[in-house]
Known about the structure:
CATH architecture of the largest domain: Orthogonal Bundle
Helix content: 40-55%
Mean pLDDT: 84
CATH class of the largest domain: Mainly Alpha
Number of strands: 7
Number of helices: 10
Distance between the termini: 32 Å
Low-confidence stretches: 143-147
Structural class: alpha+beta
Largest sheet: 4 strands, antiparallel
Order of helices and strands: HHEEHHEEHHHHHEEHE
Amino acid sequence: MSTVRPLGNGAAARKYDLLTALGTMGLAATPGEQRLVLRLMVAITARYNWASDTLAVAQSELAKLWAVDERTVKRAMAEYRARGWLRLKRQAARGRVAEYGLGIERLMEDTRPVWATVGPDFAARLTPAEPSPTPDPKIVRFPLPATEGVLWPRVLQLIAESDGDTARAWLQGLGEEPAEPGVLRLVARGRYQASYVRTHLAGRLLAAARRVDPAITSVEIACETA
């Protein structure tokens, strides 16, 4: 299974998913488990290189970040490796710290029980799709336009042509509702999707909507389960 990959179009959304899943799992855990998860999240956000899949940081530096001693760091890193949350890529040597890769598939599998806690839309997006026939490599496939609305199908198609991953992950399934002149009103299937679109994609949606209809001055994101 590979539900999250840190590179390519839509990478920022997938990083956000991973940290959301980890944080939710940690908050539901025992105090000791919470600390273990929180420390890993701090290491990821502060020192992990998504492009090269590399966490290369001295134990002394992690000790400062985590406000613990180096023995605690050593135990934690061993635990992460045992769980498959970190993979040793290169041993430490004189003048060189050890390098680790992130066990993204294992992390997502271990956080799966809390996906529904975030929201049904979050769980649906992270659940691997059934295998589909291999597409013709000469055909570039974009998400199907929304079936509801007059303006939204054209806006979705415009975004999909430049960033198909983001359109599939975050915009597919949004519906259009009637609104006052100059407003594109969209409805998400769940709170998580609505919140993410408002926070991260509102500007892109407005720009695309104005390309389709210059009279649009704002985009509203509602939630059908609100």
